[in-house]
Structure formats: structure tokens, C-alpha cells
Write a structure and sequence with these properties.
The protein is α+β, with helices and mostly antiparallel strands. The protein contains 5 helices and 22 strands. It has 2 domains: 104 residues, no CATH class; 191 residues, no CATH class. The chain is elongated, with a radius of gyration of 22 Å.
Amino acid sequence: MRKLISFLFILFLAVWSLKAYQVHQTLTNPEKMLQLSKENGNEALIGSYVKKGTLGPKWELVLYNPQTQEVAIVSLSEKISIIPRLTKKLKVYTTQYDYSLLTIDPKLIKRWNGDTPALLFNGKWHYKPNTNQTAVFQSISGTNATIIGLFYSKDDFWMGFDKIRVCNSDFGYPSAGPGSILVPPDVTGTGSPTVSAVITRKNNNSETLLTFFDGTVLNLSTRTAPECSLFLFGGRLGMAICSKEGKKNLEGSMQRFSNCTSEVEDSEGIRKAWEQNMEWDRSGRMALFIGRPVDGASRKCSNEAIWIAVTLKCNGCCGDERSGKLG
């Protein structure tokens, strides 16, 4: 009996080791990762992120389908259980923006050098020692916009409208976040924003200028108003609302940023607001909105711009909202 148990145990270890090796071999093969992520032939690779795992690296691949105007974020990693195996998670977001300009040659994915973390974006692999993220703050200096948004994600791609639950409270904010803007992860680990959005209104249209961490710029135009509006409670507390339902429910009771424009001569004040909030939480995700509200009494644009920061400690974690005057 003891020999049988020993044999079965050795057999189990052999099978477990074989499966673990197969998972490792798959996760260390970039071309295999791309092959497993694609659902159909219309999708184009626009980004990939690799971080450290247990049996092998964890992958995120971002695919854009211009025909359906959808962005798919595919996560591939190991699942360690009785028998190790590969797991795949898929999230699909509809976007009004055209990300075709970010299309990456699929052959570039196999140039990954094996280091983690690593980010493939705009035709280049970015690694921690040689990535500069100063372009985002530089992009907002001298701008004149309705709303300015800065976005950050610690270790994954962020997109979509995530509902925020405030920590230690039953109150939940309506959806706030980057909306249809793709937020790359911070490969440097410095807590700097990885993309800025400068939104301006022109008649009934809006124009969104995106500047990514590496200096890549996308000029995106839509026929709708800016997707995010900033609201004020009593002229003090602020909130960023990015869903149509949330805006409709709050229009009557809260002041709103209308066509008030904010001219940013120097980004230093915005940088300080960003660093202040990032030091508070060392967040997993963060959005900082800057704008000028409508004065509650006169219904005219106020003289001062304010910032509203929305922070999440991780994907699915509770979050916080803060606001202040831009000084």
C-alpha cells in the first residue's frame, strides 16, 4: 500500500511538473500569446504589457477592431491549482475613437527581451530604465480647454467606466474614469500619468487631444459633447461624471462645468496637485480632472479653475475623491 501511495505521489509530481513546464513554455512565447489573444482576423494589436508571474510572465494584449470600433483587453496568465493551466480573460469596450494609428507590427512582439515589466506601445518595447514620461505634463502647458484629464494605471491597461465605491462608506460615485481613453500602465514605477486628454468644444463637436507617456499624440474628434463633465456640490466638493445616466440624474441639483475654458500657462500647479494625491494613496489607478465651473449665483464661468482627483487602490478596490483649487 505504501509503495502504491509513493508511486501515485511521484506520478502526480511528474504530471504537475510537465503541465507547469508546458504553461511556462507557452507564457514565454510572445508569438503564441498573440495567437491565443486574437478572436478574429479584423483585430489589430495596439499594445502589450508583460509583468512578473509565478510559472511565467503575465501578459496583457490590447486589440482594436476598426470595423466594430471595439477595444479588447486580453489577459493571459497561469492558474496554479492541482493541475497548472493557462487562463484567459477578455474585456471588450466600445469606443468612439479611432485607435488605428497605434497599430503595431505583430512581428515586434517577438522582440521582447524577457525582462519585466515591459510595455509594447507605438512600435517600441519600453522597459523601466529607459522610459521617460515627461511628455504628459509638457503637453498641457499653454493649452486652452474645456476639460483636461490626466490618467494613470499602475500595472495594467485601464479603459471603460468603472463605478467607484468610497472606502469606509456605503456611498458609491457614479461612473468616473478615462471613458473611451486607453490608459497604458506605468512601466517606470514613478507614479506619473501615462496619458493626458485635452478636451475642447467647437460648436456641437468636441475635440480630444491625447498625449501618451512617450510623446505619441492622437487628435480625436467626435460629434458629441465631451464624455466627462465635472460637477460641484455647493461650490466645494467636486465629482467627475462620465456616464449619461449619472449626468442626467445630477443635472438639476449640481453645478456643472459648461463651456468654461481653462488656460494653462504653466503645468506646475497641475503637477503639484497630481503628486499630492499620488502621495496620499500610491494608487493603483488615478484620474485627475481640471476645469473651470459655472458660478452658482451668476451662472457665469468662475474665475478659478479647480482639480478633481479620483483614486482607486487597485482594480475593483474602493476609492476616494478629492478636489481643490488649482494654485
